[in-house]
Amino acid sequence: MTMNETRSxxxxxxxxxxVRVDPExxxxxxxxxLLSQLKGAPKSLVYKIxxxxxxxVNGGRAKPETRLQGGDQVRIPPVRLGExxxxxxxxxxxxxxxxxxxxxxxARLLAISKPSGVASHGGSGISFGVIxxxxxxxxxxxxxxxxxxxxxxxGLMVIAKKRSAxxxxxxxxxxxxxxxxxxxxxxxGRMPDGVMSVDSPLHIGxxxxxxxxxxxxxDGKPSxxxxxxxxxxxxxxxxxxxxxTGRTHQIRVHAQHIGHPVAGDDKYGAVEVNxxxxxxxxxxxxxxxxxxxxxxxxxGAAPYVLSAPLAPELVEVLDRLG
Length: 322
What we know:
The chain has helices at 30-37, 43-51, 92-100, 130-137, 163-174, 250-257, 271-281, 312-321, and strands at residues 17-20, 56-57, 73-76, 102-105, 109-114, 144-145, 154-160, 180-187, 195-199, 202-206, 212-216, 224-233, 236-243, 288-297, 302-307. By secondary structure, the protein is α+β, with helices and mostly antiparallel strands. The chain has three domains: 17-83, Structural Genomics Hypothetical 15.5 Kd Protein In mrcA-pckA Intergenic Region, Chain A (Roll), CATH 3.10.290; 90-166, Pseudouridine synthase (2-Layer Sandwich), CATH 3.30.2350.10; 175-321, 2-Layer Sandwich (Pseudouridine synthase). Keywords: Isomerase, RNA-binding, rRNA processing. InterPro entries: PsdUridine_synth_cat_dom_sf (IPR020103), PsdUridine_synth_RluA-like_CS (IPR006224), PsdUridine_synth_RluC/D (IPR006225), PsdUridine_synth_RsuA/RluA (IPR006145), RluA_PseudoU_synthase (IPR050188), S4_RNA-bd (IPR002942), S4_RNA-bd_sf (IPR036986).
């Protein structure tokens, strides 16, 4: 909490409190703001209290993705965080892996090549994700996630070391063409040559048990992906994917939609193809890798081109496919 951020006094024993949003946090998503206020709270809990209406912004209901403005009044209900204090510290192996994953660092930004299987943040039964582990590695540093990757996706993630950089990057993410995002993926089957653009809206639904499931739907948010075949491997298509929007599971659902799901995708993929690739090439994970990000800070004066090499286990799969 900054010096300008003020709270109402909570009721005895811990009750509802109201936080005034500091102007420096203008543009921050409500869910991220709550995670900063409720240290140790899993994201599943934050989504629950927002969707149930227990969190209010200026007296009204809001969504997790609501962008806050300086001076907004956020009502935060009492929550139980007892479990958070018992989580201890990340395992030594995870700390070592995260330290080794750093591909760029300067005064404003930290960039890592996230291993597959590591969540962006804790929650839903996961004690330590990228941000919790980095904070354990760098105690006292004000590290904030700029964006997220699916747990099973590997590759480039950017973490802000200064709030000014976080605000500027979040603004660029909302601009069309503000950040150029490039992924590498193995798609099932033979994609046509050239660039295939998929302009199909995506809608997030919930399955029984609360699992998120994304599908192409007319009521969804506009979503645009561009797929280009780089090589043919074992009857499948190794592709470069550029996305102009950053929707949940966007590449995976768009790939499924065009009949060429991402290899190794156990949520939107082809079961038989995944099984064959496991047996023939040793593919035991989602073949999707965030390869690079290009953007410029300081109003365009400070260009960045950040990249993360294809994960070694995915290189091995390509080699085995020949």
